[in-house]
Amino acid sequence: MRDIIDKLYNENNASREELIYLLDNLDEESRSYLIDKAHDTRMKTYGDKVYMRGLIEFTNYCKRNCEYCGIRRGNKEADRYRLSVEEILLCAEIGDKLGYKTYVLQGGEDDYFTDDIMVEIITKIKERFPKNAITLSLGERSYESYERMFKAGADRYLLRHETATKELYKKLHPGASFENRRGCLLNLRKIGYQIGAGFMVGLPNQTTEDLVNDLLYVKELTPEMCGIGPFIPHKDTSLKDEKGGTLEDTITILAIVRLLLPNVLLPATTALGSINPIGRELGIKAGANVVMPNLSPTDVRDKYSLYDGKICTGDEAAECRRCIEGRINRAGFQVEVGRGDNIQWVKEEKLCL
Ligand code: SAM
């Protein structure tokens, strides 16, 4: 067991068989060794800095029907909303005052937000806050659409691959294409975005082999960011009675991803904080180095309901900022308010800051 962890630490690599063995046989002592090594690796790459991103959840309309998701098209109970361009700009303004130098614009796949509207939003944010980075997370769109938004000033794009096992993907995403989602990630990279892949831990019927598929996929893709969180059931979906992903499994996977991809930006997700009061802190101690406090207006927060028990739905943006900074400091880390680009990009000077 130690040999595999040492190999991960020294070579940032492991074979399929080694990863399966590791996940199937990890005892408490080895797990704590794994987490120490992941922490050590992050200290070498990013130090004790934790990057802040202001999250703007601007629409919960979605044309997709992902089985696990509370804002899926088929959920008639969802109370739908869209923020106006002005409301989004106000969130950006509040975020800038709170020191967030990256905005994450996230939403369901909502055809209302055409390329023209997205270009208008991106252009206006960049005109007012030229030094701030924009991360988009709007799901699958055409190459031309991604390109127009990039040319308008978007910097990064989060598109979790969700699961790297085709059969599981098909079961969870009726009518969607496994190949198209992966193709989108390649298109985004080709256009010039910093890309973020990612997956859920503890999906119904997910096996160790499936998780290892995810690990090997992200190792090969080498995304600049990787969003990993536990699956959490939502009461209005077909998966409502399933078990969710555990804190332990999610932390273990975060630690392995830090070792496989030492330079990756790795969020301690809201979902992790939702299954355990100190889930995000434990994630940060296992190699995670990004948090995404919410900037959305409080009156829409609980409508962006992807899963049950989501935290931080009532707090004003300033309160979220204070709360998260306190948590990061108490865990022994420091908030970093810069743009927080991927360190490899900064080294290769792909950025024109
Ligand atoms: N529509 C965009 C997309 O498809 O990438 C972004 C929004 S989508 C709701 C954001 C992420 O929420 C998904 O990538 C998925 O991994 C996560 N998510 C959705 N339902 C979830 C659940 N029940 N538990 C945990 N995470 C969930």
TrEMBL record:
Molecular function (GO) terms for this protein are: 4 iron, 4 sulfur cluster binding; metal ion binding; transferase activity
How the cofactor binds, per note? Binds 1 [4Fe-4S] cluster. The cluster is coordinated with 3 cysteines and an exchangeable S-adenosyl-L-methionine.
The residues listed in the UniProt record as binding (3R)-3-methyl-D-ornithine, with positions renumbered to this chain, are: 137
UniProtKB keywords:
4Fe-4S, Iron, Iron-sulfur, Metal-binding, S-adenosyl-L-methionine
Check the record and name the SUPFAM superfamilies matching this protein. Answer: Radical SAM enzymes (SSF102114)
Record-annotated Radical SAM core domain positions: 48-263
Q: Where is the signal peptide?
A: none
* Residues reported to bind [4Fe-4S] cluster: 62, 66, 69
Q: Where does S-adenosyl-L-methionine bind?
A: 162, 181
Biological process GO annotation list? sulfur compound biosynthetic process; water-soluble vitamin biosynthetic process
Task: Provide the cofactor list for this protein.
Answer: [2Fe-2S] cluster; [4Fe-4S] cluster
Name under which the protein is recorded:
[FeFe] hydrogenase H-cluster radical SAM maturase HydE
